[in-house]
Write a structure and sequence with these properties.
Chain lengths: ~270, ~270
């Protein structure tokens, strides 16, 4: 009798696990077929019926991947965090933390990404120094700090492409403060520096016109005229010239950085977030 | 040994059936209810839909329709609600939900029969969105619950007397006093700037005419006229934009109020 009952109990538990395993395999299949919505549905079903939480880690991880592939980074973040919390050993924890780190990088949540990286520093037996530096480089790139990213990548032999990219972007970027600075001395110069020649000429022209008018007015002792033109016309165009110089430099920098991000997204073949 | 085999054989027979155990009627229903409680309405509807292969009931139909409305599938929701028979306990709630549906779809002609309190209220409330209010004030307000009558009164008054600015008045004010029309339309900074630009260029034109500087005088005259005309047009446009903001904010407030009052309909406990 005892043997019979043991057999029944074993069969039932194996039977239950078998169902849940099949459900997980089915969800994984849907994920591989890029049917992310359906994969999420089946994973939620598995999670609902998995009373023993045997598949909790794997389910949360795959949910995180599914939402990420579907472009829903907030939900992905939620499930990767749950995966970290439900991990049963250090390897599982670090794996989930790495996925969490990638989401933080994509969302440019630099401080959270840095927290994970500093946590990794305390787990050096499970993650190599190169890998930590590699992800630090990515955090810096997404934080638009190409100087820092080049410093990190220079310490990794296999990251030559990323190092060269960081140096190239850093060299190509325009200095916003320089553009504004030279515009203080020569109206339009900042705009020339950023390649906006027509706008620079226009700025120069307006400033020369109103400057000439104001100076002439003062010379002819038409003090009120001089003040009026200086205050309401000349300063307006002068300040506008400085503002434009800064704005154009920032716009050019955005173009340069976006080009780099496009390269990373579509052409770079290495590991990326 | 024979006894062991006697028990094993039925157990082995069960194994092929375990493939679909999570997709049994009861498990689909449990999972659908869970999704509904988590407000994952699209998934909940898809699961409720699977239950039609088995036997369904009015509660499931109601929840399916509720989920469809939440994902803006109003026509499909209506078709489902029509399946709830008149004798059902949920019939009243399904009519209420159909009233909400009609309101959301803008089909206010469905309220003409005024078969229920919610229809009366929705019909009156929908008139606040339209150009003309038909009902007089007392009749309008008294149709609603006591606790919200003061809010309804405010909406009624905002509808009858909106705080519009007249574009014609704004243009005239700016024609008389540059910038005044813009200040009237609520644009203080723009109004001051228009005044300064127009009067300054006008003054420069005047001083240059006095000193017989032909080119500069006509140049500043031209600039003055441009600023003056722009100031008048700008004042009228600002008043128009102001009025559109009033209308937009009114509509936002109406939408927010009716949502917070559950569209004046009653819902069963299981969806509250």
């Amino acid at each position: 009798m005892k043997i019979i009952f043991s057999l029944i109990l074993i069969s039932l538990s194996v039977f239950g696990q078998n169902v849940l395993q099949k459900q997980f395999d089915y969800a994984e299949d849907l994920f591989k077929q890029e049917k992310y919505y359906d994969a999420v549905t089946e994973l939620l079903r598995l999670s609902f019926f998995d009373n023993e939480k045997q598949f909790e880690y794997k389910t949360n991880l795959l949910l995180g991947f599914s939402y990420r592939e579907g472009g829903k980074l907030s939900e992905s973040l939620f499930y990767f965090t749950k995966a970290v919390l439900s991990s049963k050993n250090i390897e599982e924890e670090i794996y989930a933390q790495k996925e969490l780190l990638k989401i933080y990088i994509l969302r440019r949540q630099t401080s959270q990404a840095e927290k994970i990286l500093s946590d990794f520093e305390n787990k050096k037996e499970h993650i190599t120094k190169e890998e930590i530096l590699y992800w630090k480089g990515w955090v810096a790139m997404f934080n638009d700090d190409w100087q820092k990213s080049s410093e990190y990548f220079s310490q990794i032999d296999s990251a030559e492409i990323l190092y060269n990219l960081s140096i190239e972007v850093e060299n190509k970027k325009y200095s916003v403060s320089f553009a504004k600075g030279i515009s203080y001395f020569i109206p339009g110069a900042g705009q020339f520096y950023t390649g906006n020649y027509f706008s620079g000429l226009l700025s120069l022209g307006w400033n020369v016109l109103w400057g000439f008018t104001a100076v002439n007015a003062f010379k002819a002792e038409r003090i009120f005229d001089g003040f009026a033109v200086t205050l309401f016309l000349w300063t307006r165009f002068y300040n506008g010239n400085i503002f434009n110089a800064g704005k154009f430099a920032e716009e050019k920098n955005i173009e340069i950085v976006n080009k780099a991000y496009n390269f990373l997204q579509y052409e770079f073949k290495g590991i990326k977030p | 040994m024979k006894i062991i085999f006697f028990f094993l054989i039925p157990l082995i027979q069960l194994f092929p059936q375990t493939d679909n155990i999570l997709l049994s009627q009861e498990n689909i229903r449990l999972f659908a209810e869970y999704l509904f409680s988590q407000k994952d309405y699209l998934r909940a509807f898809n699961e409720f839909d699977k239950l039609y292969e088995f036997k369904t009931n009015d509660t499931i139909i109601y929840k399916s329709a509720f989920s469809l409305i939440k994902i803006d599938k109003f026509n499909e929701a209506d078709l489902l609600l029509n399946k709830i028979p008149k004798g059902s306990k949920l019939n009243f709630f399904s009519r209420e939900l159909q009233n909400k549906n009609s309101f959301l779809e803008g089909k206010t002609e469905n309220f003409e029969k005024k078969e229920s309190i919610s229809q009366i209220r929705l019909s009156l409330y929908s008139s606040l969105y339209k150009n003309n209010l038909i009902e007089n004030k007392e009749n309008f307000i008294s149709a609603f619950q006591n606790e919200i009558q003061s809010d309804i009164q405010k909406f009624y008054e905002r509808k009858i007397n909106p705080e519009y600015k007249s574009p014609l008045k704004a243009a005239l004010l700016s024609a008389i006093f540059p910038g005044a029309g813009k200040i009237y339309a609520g644009e203080l900074g723009d109004g001051i700037a228009a005044f300064v630009a127009t009067t300054l260029s006008g003054y420069l034109a005047y001083t240059n005419f006095k000193e017989n500087r032909s080119f500069r005088s006509w140049l500043f005259t031209g600039i003055t006229l441009l600023y003056y005309a722009g100031n008048i047009y700008g004042a009228a446009a600002s008043a128009d934009i102001f009025n559109k903001k009033i209308d937009f904010q009114f509509k936002v407030d109406l939408d927010s109020f009716i949502r917070s009052n559950n569209y004046f309909i009653e819902t069963p406990e299981f969806v509250k």
